[in-house]
Amino acid sequence: MARALFVGDINVDVMMGGMESLPVVDREVTCKSFEVVMGASTVICACAYRSLGGAASFVGLVGNDDYGDFMLRGLEEFGVHTGLVTRTSQVRTGVTVNLIFENTRTQVTYPGTIAEFEGPELDESALRGFDHIHCGGVYLQTKFRPRITALLKLARKLGVTTSLDPQWDSSETWEYMDQWLPLLTWLFVNQDEALSIAKAASVEEAARWLAARTHCPLIKVGKDGVAVPVDGTLKTVPVRVVEPVDTTGAGDSFDAGFLYATLEKKMGLLEACRFANAVAARSCTFVGGTSARSTYDDIMASLRE
Length: 305
Description:
The two termini are 28 Å apart.
């Protein structure tokens, strides 16, 4: 079994669902549901990967607080190894408030431990024994971000495959991206991220730009599935339409599905994209990024429908 190491953000998600409207300045807006669930791009990806049947370990930072306890307990309940997660009393565990109105989601994040994570544990001895390293949510990880290039170079030296889902960079400068792209095995981005990184006017243009700089860019295009360059041609792998309950973590679930299909099941590129689309679609029928707990059999059954 391939051992995957997930490196990055840890925070709780506060889900305010069924809002009567989008937020309005100086006006109280009610919602129909409220939950505190496991959040963070990399956490959701690790949990989804473990649910499918993969072996997952995590590196990150949480506070010495109730939310830190909650996140560690949740990761361990999924079977994700947390021996490399450290704790601090200097700052609190990160929190993201998700304001859900119809099919839209507005997020407000307190970075906390996300911004303070530095990853000093990630030396050669720690990486030996892992087959893959996945990083996510890096543009909130202000102290770790400058270390990622060295991590990717070390992984390449050790023969370890790598993937990155950067999430949105609010500055749109995409610091260090030019260093990371040539070192990555897979790059996961959504349509808006791809257009911004490549400064492109279309997905096709962005895909060409990325394909010239990184081994395998996968562009998630929402309800249309995923677009991926194959032999100089942009292929789009469609996704089965579902009635979404909450899209939180759908992209991270896609990443997990693709990695599991590729690393564990040895699927080809387009077959792995089809499998990953199904993982993402099923996640949208549950509230919160980790609630689906999709198994490999669940996904294969949905693909047969």
